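Annual report, structural modelling task.

Input specification for the iron/sulfur cluster complex:
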Amino acid sequence: MGRSAHKMEARVLGSTGINVSVISLGGVAFTWLGKKRAEKLIDFCVDCGINYIDVYSGTAEKIKEALKRNREKIIISTRGNAKTLENCLNEFNLDYFDIFLLSMIDNKEQLNQAIDEANDLEKFRKQGKFRILGIATHNPVLYKPIIESRAFDVMMIPVNCVDEVNKEIFEEARNQGIGIIAMKPFAGGNIRKHDSTIKYVLNLPVSTALIGMARIGEVKQNIKVLKKPEITAQDINFYRKIRKKLGKIFCRYCGHCIFPEPCPNEIPVRTIMMLETLAYQANLRRTVSERILNSIKSCKKCGLCEKRCPYHLPVRKLLPEKVKHYLEITR
Ligand code: SF4
Ligand code: SF4
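The model returned the following structure:
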């Protein structure tokens, strides 16, 4: 028997004519959820009116059946390039992706390559293998050149009450008909007051807040915010406090410090920056190996990771602090 989905506010993605629900499902949790829970999560989201799901290569075995049975109701995006697109379609057993994103684009050189890649991808669009071309970046310096390039239909960028986006960017994107997908609305797990930050994001001219949800309870809680979307004095106070607290020290987990080249001393910088999030995901149990926790001892303070970080975080100083805090909060 077919399930009927609830309605959720939807916004158009730039000038693509495609409507996406204001809350959408980021696929990060599919990397660790089992098949049953991943499928249940997708079905539940679709029933709640969430019609946009972003998926990662490597998770297809767990979710491709759920995607298939909901295919008519959902917009699916993934990342890759002209070489990986067809494999990715095979992996998910799909005929097309609605949105195909070029990701890990965080400097001018990578952007120029992405613009060339966009040309190469046009033939696949004509063959019906994807509908919309997008670009995902963490680097605010690139927002304007991306819009001006006119090579992309949508832009996926971090938007949250710490990562403020210049208002002009929204205006220029709107003028060029480029849709904005707000990723990292909870600043990669650093913001725990989800209701305030969802309101913040959705009060901006973004098309959707892409949230990496893992549990049905989380979906319910996040959707509840849509009933009272107005920003209150209490929310404004929270934005002020969180900006002061996190300022320029929070990691967006973009991975540029270790990708494509790893740390010369094999320190898994991104994982260490993520330790608090991993701790909360594991209910404050210590699941990260001693080997990873001890790896920071071989840091030679060369600063390469800091040079690669688009946010100029003081990684060398933060690494030992992250490990210390993780050991304190985990049992
Ligand atoms: S500063 Fe440390 S963690 Fe960063 S790249 Fe150098 S050795 Fe690796
Ligand atoms: S330290 Fe910087 S480059 Fe590395 S994951 Fe965090 S934000 Fe990205």
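The longest helix spans residues 108-126.
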